[in-house]
Amino acid sequence: MSITKFEPDTKYSYRDYLRWNDDQRWELIDGIPHNMTPAPSTKHQIILRELLVEFAVYLRGKPCEVFGAPFDVRLSASEQNEEIFNVVQPDISVVCDKKKIDEKGCKGAPDLIVEILSPSTAKKDKATKKKLYETYGVKEYWVLDPLNENIEVFVLNEAKYGESQIYGKDDQLKVSIFEDLTIDLDSIFGKE
């Protein structure tokens, strides 16, 4: 079915989501559809590319996989499509349990998620998605701000995100889920 309008007070499931064929990217959060930003900025794409390369090179020959958007992450305790109400497309997902990966994306929480802010997604990424990722057990969540060239990192500890750590362009970011991965952020944000 072609989606142009959603019914108010209707909770949509992953089963509904799979039927939408309107050539737009959507996320579901608590059954509410959210249209994705259609065209990320060039800076967003450069940062995304550089981070994907860092993770891909590091993970070569290791059991974890890295995926860039669009890549559906289904956050639910259920395997039934009609009972899944949270489907997100993080900019980057790192998944270390291969049983979670299928042809449609990831079923369950990735180990690490990166969201790159844009003006239209900042509030959702910083509040709504942070809570969602915490609830479903994403071990490490990065909120990357391309405008201010920093990354806010949340690490799950006893089912809650602790106080965030903020890293700037000149910092080295130690990835908590990997013992020996440190990323030079100057190489991610690029030289002016």
TrEMBL record:
UniProt KW DNA repair keyword: no
Listed InterPro entries: Nuclease_put_TT1808, Restrct_endonuc-II-like, Uma2
Source superkingdom: Bacteria
GO molecular function terms listed in the Swiss-Prot or TrEMBL record: endonuclease activity
Keywords from the named record: Endonuclease, Hydrolase, Nuclease
Annotated Putative restriction endonuclease domain residues: 16-185
Pfam families given in the database record: Uma2
Annotated PANTHER family: GLR1098 PROTEIN (PTHR36558), RESTRICTION ENDONUCLEASE DOMAIN-CONTAINING PROTEIN-RELATED (PTHR36558:SF1)
Protein name listed in UniProt: Uma2 family endonuclease
